[in-house]
Amino acid sequence: MVPTLDRREFLLGSGGIGVAAVTGDVRPEANATRADDPSDDAVAVVSQHGLATDAGLEILEQGGTAADAAVAVACTLSVVEPWFSSALGGGTWALYYEAESEEVTSVDGVGPVGSDATVADYEDRAGDYGMHQSVVPGAWDGWMLWLEEYGELDLEAVLSPAITIAREGYPASPGMVDWLERRVDRIEERTDAAEIYMPDGELVEEGETVSQQDMADTFEALADAYDDERDEGRSEAIQAARDYFYRGSIAEDIVEFSDEQDGYLTLPDFEEFEAEIVDPVSIEYDEGLEVYQNPPNSQGITQLLALNVLKEYDLEGIDPDSADAVHVQAEAIKLAFADRYHHVGDPDRVDVPVADLLDEEYAAEQRDRIEMDEAMEWPIDSGLEETDADHTTTFHVVDADGNGAAVTTSLGAQFQVIGDTGIHLNNRMRMLALEEDDPNRLTPGYKVRHTSNPYLATRDGDPYVLGGNTGVDTQPQGQTQQFVTVAEFGLGAQEAIDSPRFETTAFPSTQYPYDVGNTLEMEREFPDEVVDELEQRGHDVDVGGSYGTANMIVVGEDGTLEVGAESRSEVADGSVVQLDD
Fold first, then answer.
1. CA–CA dist 138, 177 (Å, integer)
2. Gene3D superfamilies recorded for this chain (predicted)?
3. pTM to 2 decimals?
4. What are the structural domains, with CATH classification, of the chain?
5. 403 within 8 A of 96, measured Cβ to Cβ
6. Which of 68, 79, 130, 481 is the least buried, fewest Cβ under 10 Å from its Cβ?
7. Rounded to whole angstroms, how far apart are CA atoms 298 and 472?
C-alpha cells in the first residue's frame, strides 16, 4: 500500500506566504480569503486544488507575473488533477489583462483535428473512448506564448512546483478517487495509466500518495531544452521548449502512440501547429463595464449573447434565487445556445457572424422573444440566417502590478497516458458534430468548437471580475449566473460561487450523441416554491446534482481583492496574500 501523506508536507515556498493547509471537509470560509486593506502588493490566486494555488503564490512571491503564475498553476494541475486538464496533452483558452497597456488579449491554445481523420471512420467509433478522439494538444504552445509575451521568470522556475509535486507525490483527493472509480475499466486496459493509478493492482484510495515520475521527467526535459538556448536569449529559449514538444521527441512519441492505437495524428500536424494570441470578443454590459470572452472557435460568445439579452432587465431588486431570476436567465441562455448551435465553429472553416450576433439591435430582438410566464423548448431557431458551412478546470490570478489571468483549460477524463512521457492526452473530438451542414463538423486540420471559455470583466478599464465555470455546456451558463450575481445582485465572490446553480438542456448537447434534454436542472438548495413556480411556467424541472465547479476573483473599486473558491470541492482553494517587501 502506498503511504498516506498530508497536504501540509507539500506546501511550497520559503515561508514568506502563509497559506493554510486544507484537509477534510472544506467550507467556503475555510478555502477563500479577502484582502480588506487595498495594497499594491496584494496578489490573489484561486484554483481547483490547493497545491496548484500554492504553486501560483510561490511564483508571485518570486517576482513572477500573473502569466508566470498561471503557467505554474496549469502545470501543477496537470499533476494533481490529471483527469481534468493537462498543460501537455490538453487545450486552453485564456484571457490576460496587461496593466501597463490596459489591454485584454486571448490565447488560443487549441490544436486541430488530425490529418488522417475522416467523418466515415470516426462515425463508426464516435461512442468509444480512445486515441481516435484526440486532437493536437495545443495548450503547451499557448502557455509558452504567454511566458514570452507577459512572463518574467525562466521556465525552470515556473515548472519547479509541478516537478517537485510530481516527483514527491501528492495525496489522492476524493474527487480523484471518484474519477478513478468511474474510469477503472479504461485504466485497467492501459498499462501506462495502470502503473500510476493502480501501482499495487488496486486503485489508489483517498489520501494515498500518487506520483507522476514520467511527467516530472517530461517537464524537466522541456526545462532543459529551454536552458540549452538561454544564452541566446529568452525568446530563443522559449522557442526551443516549443520545438522540443512540437517538432521533437514528444511529438514523435505521441504520433507513434497514435499510429499504434489507430488515431489520426501525424508529425506534420504537430510541426505546423502554432498557438496564437488573438483579440477577444466583448460587450458593454453597463456604462464603463466591459465583459470579455474568447472568440470562436471557443464557445465564449455564448455567455456574451446571454448577457447582452439580460442587461436591459432591471435585476437589482430581484431575489437571486427567485423564479423570475432563474426564468429570465434560463431563457436568455437558451437563445444564446441556439445561436451557438446554428453559427459557432472554427472561423477558418465557417463564417461566424460575430458582429451581427453581438449587435445591440439583435439583442433587443432576442429579448422580445422571452415570455416571463412561458418556457421555451428546443427546437429554438436563431434570430439570424443560418451559417454556411466536465472535463475541465478553471483558475484565476491577479499579480501585484494589477495584471490578471482568467483561465479555463481542458482535457477529458479518459486517463490515456502516452507511454513513458507521463502525458495524459485529450479526447476533444467527442465534441465535434458529424452532420454536413453543422458549423462544428469534423474536418481534418480544423478546430473543434472548444467549450473552454473563461471570462474577464473590466470596470472603467481596470479588472473587475475574473471567472470561469467547468462542465462542457454548463460553462457559459454558470458563468452568466455568477457574473449577474455579483454585478446585479451585489453578492461577493464567495457568495456567488456558493449560490445554487441551474442548467438548461434545451439545445443539442455538445458531446456525442448530442442529445436534447429540454429540462431545467436545478441544485437542491433552491426553495420548493421556486421549483413549483418554474414548473407552472412550463419548465421541466429536474432537482438534484451539482453543475460544474467554479472559481472567481472580484476586484473592488478601491482595489481590494476577493476570491471565491468552489465550496462543492474538497480541495479547491483561493488566497489573497500581501507579499513581503
1. 27
2. 1.10.246.130, 3.60.20.40
3. 0.92
4. 54-275+412-431 (no CATH), 278-391+452-578 (1.10.246.130)
5. yes
6. 130
7. 11
